Amino acid sequence: MNNKTVKELKKAAKDQGMCGYSKLTKAELIARLSRRNDMDSDHDVWENAREDARDNDVWENAREDTRA
Known about the structure:
The radius of gyration is 20 Å and the shape is rod-shaped. The longest helix is centred in the middle third of the chain and has 30 residues, at 26-55. Helices cover 74% and strands 0% of the residues. The chain has 3 helices and no strands.
């Protein structure tokens, strides 16, 4: 991210729906975007784990088998 311009970083902030980015310095933009990306990736890990658990729900699958 360090090789991006302030304009590019502000566009990325806007695209991600961030508020209050217009007066931030390049370092602040990088820090906030990085933090936001870290939070998003953490969320994705947990969301993927939940989806996997739902897909592999043994009890739900057994219930469906008994109904069939």
